[in-house]
Q: What sequence folds into this?
């Protein structure tokens, strides 16, 4: 195991355990740790919304800026004061969520290969977020602002970029005029607008972006921040006084931690650290030992241009283009640089049905490392070898619980790259070809390694999304288990319970017409 | 997932922990940049050094076109600036400031931050903005009682009599 992998594992394992702990209370769809990106965007909207009101009421005069913010905190505590507190606490939460998001994506190895672009475009966001946050604190022009302004400009002055030391703007009270705060407010608006533009770039290579977390998660987060705003309203420190050094500053450690770090070390150390971290973040994708898996391949003769693969691809790697041989038709084209090699497209393809009569099943879009033909052949072989009662086929996910350990005389297991790779027709095929039940072991909800595999699998089997499971397939013979790599026991117990349920049912043949491809009339 | 009541109770606890974490580190722990009995002296100025001008001779002036017969010949370059600061006769800053710009025609700037225990000190600042000349063109001496956490600025402004303490 390389050092990089070992380091990531030491973070990934506890992170995964935390996620699974949170699952007990929130469930996968509402688990904040699984939706950190969407949480960040939601918090940003809270910051923007509350900031618009603060912009309306703020007076940018040197004396007035402090008083106007103080007035809304005091006189309008029930509205303006709460918005001010929400603005501050949502900003802190944003920093926290951004840090966790970065840590999680790194620990889970999601920074290389097809994720390279999203990772690299995320790095400038960190700088923009901190620049916006630090600038925001200056606007209040209290003692925290004074401390931050002087510390930041002292830090900036270490770089040879200004003809005059920027800190001279904060030497004496006379150094500052009203225009400074007008400029500051515009910078504080401009940087978040840049941040939003950069966020668009950050997510534009993925499809079905979660722009917002689930409703319960939004309500819970807003409730927590609102309660905090009421219990501990954000207030200003004493007004800035450049004739004195602020004592005992109530520092916001989420945003302003760089100042104590500079005091503790030196500007040279802090700049070296910041630059080294930035370069490291940019360089990480190039340092990784990631080996790209074979990408999806389109077969023009079997692609009918239905665009289901395009609709289901989590990374917008499939686009539709004019078919080279069939005028008026379209064909799927895979962008190799974006393809995650997850196989979700193969699961979406209507040609991926095992009921087709060809000896060699060639579908419209397929994975070279696990073609649907190989999946059908493995399924047929394993079904033929099953003995005893309650014969179950388990389709496992390479990133979830180890399904192979469940293999037994009456249990066949078939590994897949992702649960989303499973065409629903394979479930029907298994039941009609001898299985009493089919279990699909997917990653935990919201924890799919390819973002949408669990969601599409559930929707296809619930007949809510194409390709739908046919209505004649009895639902009680299908079980979806959401189990992570740590959930081996859970999967094992789920199988026992499923078999017990199947044991109370009549033979599958009484509920669904048996089918054997080799003896079927069209074979 | 747990039963709804237990799940909701767990969510309340976790949202509460999230709010408490944000609320605590948004203002705590308190931070003091300097000890309570210390003051800070900031020495900073931004000034253009003198140019080394020379009076043109009548012969030189005669050679020039009539519209360009300026009596003084001033090069574009500025002089370095020398600065020294003594506190209680002990030298704290001794610095030569170079003009900025590719042609050394820009402003010379400096910024120093000195932390001192609160108390009474004699400050002596000296500056020469033409290093071709001997001695000091600007000098200022003052005894100041520095209070704890005081921020004393030593700056230079030619219109305010040169060096000043504030």
A:
């Amino acid at each position: 195991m390389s050092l990089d992998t070992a380091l990531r594992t030491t973070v990934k394992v506890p992170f995964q355990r935390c996620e699974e702990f949170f699952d007990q209370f929130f469930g996968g769809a509402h688990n904040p740790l699984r939706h950190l990106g969407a949480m960040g965007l939601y918090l940003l909207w809270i910051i923007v919304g509350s900031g618009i009101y603060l912009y309306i009421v703020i007076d940018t005069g040197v004396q007035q800026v402090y008083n106007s913010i103080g007035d809304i905190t005091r006189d309008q505590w029930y509205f303006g004061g709460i918005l001010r507190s929400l603005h501050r606490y949502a900003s802190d939460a944003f920093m926290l969520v951004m840090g966790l998001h970065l840590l999680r994506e790194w620990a889970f190895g999601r920074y290389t290969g097809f994720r390279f672009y999203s990772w690299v475009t995320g790095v400038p966001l960190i700088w923009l977020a901190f620049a916006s946050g630090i600038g925001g604190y200056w606007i209040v022009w209290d003692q925290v602002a004074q401390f931050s302004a002087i510390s930041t400009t002292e830090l900036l002055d270490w770089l040879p970029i200004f003809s005059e030391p920027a800190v001279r703007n904060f030497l004496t009270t006379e150094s500052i005029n009203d225009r400074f705060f007008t400029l500051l407010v515009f910078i504080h608006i401009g940087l978040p607008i840049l941040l939003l533009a950069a966020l668009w770039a950050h997510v534009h290579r993925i499809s079905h972006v979660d722009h917002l977390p689930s409703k319960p998660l939004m309500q819970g987060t807003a409730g927590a921040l609102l309660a905090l705003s009421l219990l501990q309203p954000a207030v200003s420190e004493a007004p800035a006084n450049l004739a004195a050094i602020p004592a005992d500053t109530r520092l916001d450690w989420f945003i302003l931690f760089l100042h104590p770090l500079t005091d503790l070390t030196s500007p040279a150390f802090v700049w070296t650290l910041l630059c080294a971290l930035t370069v490291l973040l940019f360089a990480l994708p190039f340092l990784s030992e990631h080996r790209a898996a074979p990408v999806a391949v389109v077969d023009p003769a079997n692609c009918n241009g239905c665009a289901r693969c395009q609709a289901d691809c989590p990374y917008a790697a499939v686009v539709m283009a004019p078919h080279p041989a069939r005028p008026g038709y379209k064909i799927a084209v895979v962008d190799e640089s974006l393809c995650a090699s997850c196989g979700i497209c193969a699961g979406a393809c209507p040609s991926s049905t095992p009921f087709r009569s060809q000896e060699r099943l060639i579908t419209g879009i397929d994975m070279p490392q696990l073609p649907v033909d190989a999946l059908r052949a493995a399924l047929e072989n394993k079904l033929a070898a099953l003995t005893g009662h309650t014969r179950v086929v388990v389709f496992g996910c390479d990133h979830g619980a180890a399904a192979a350990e469940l293999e037994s005389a009456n249990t066949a297991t078939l590994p897949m790259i992702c649960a989303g790779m499973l065409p629903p027709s394979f479930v029907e095929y298994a039941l009609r070809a001898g299985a009493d039940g089919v279990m699909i072991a997917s990653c935990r909800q919201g924890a799919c390694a390819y973002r949408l595999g669990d969601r599409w699998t559930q929707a296809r089997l619930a007949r809510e999304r194409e390709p739908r499971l046919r209505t004649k397939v009895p639902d009680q013979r299908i079980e979806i288990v959401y189990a992570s790599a740590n959930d081996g026991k859970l999967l094992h117990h789920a199988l026992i319970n499923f078999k017990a349920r199947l044991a109370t049912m009549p033979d599958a043949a009484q509920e669904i017409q048996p089918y054997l491809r080799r003896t079927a009339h069209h074979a | 997932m747990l039963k709804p009541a237990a799940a909701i109770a767990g969510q309340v606890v976790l949202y509460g922990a999230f709010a408490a974490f944000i609320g605590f580190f948004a203002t705590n722990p308190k931070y003091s940049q300097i000890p309570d009995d210390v003051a800070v002296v900031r020495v900073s100025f931004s000034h253009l050094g003198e140019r080394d001008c020379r009076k043109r001779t009548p012969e030189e002036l005669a050679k020039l076109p009539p519209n360009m017969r300026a009596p003084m010949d001033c090069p574009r370059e500025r002089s370095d600036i020398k600065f020294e600061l003594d506190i209680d006769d002990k030298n704290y800053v001794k610095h030569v400031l170079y003009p900025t710009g590719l042609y050394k025609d820009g402003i010379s700037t400096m910024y120093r931050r000195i932390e001192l225990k609160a108390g009474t000190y004699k400050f002596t600042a000296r500056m020469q903005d033409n290093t071709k000349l001997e001695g000091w063109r600007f000098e200022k001496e003052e005894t100041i009682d520095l209070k704890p956490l005081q921020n004393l600025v030593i700056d230079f402004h030619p219109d305010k009599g040169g060096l000043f303490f504030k």
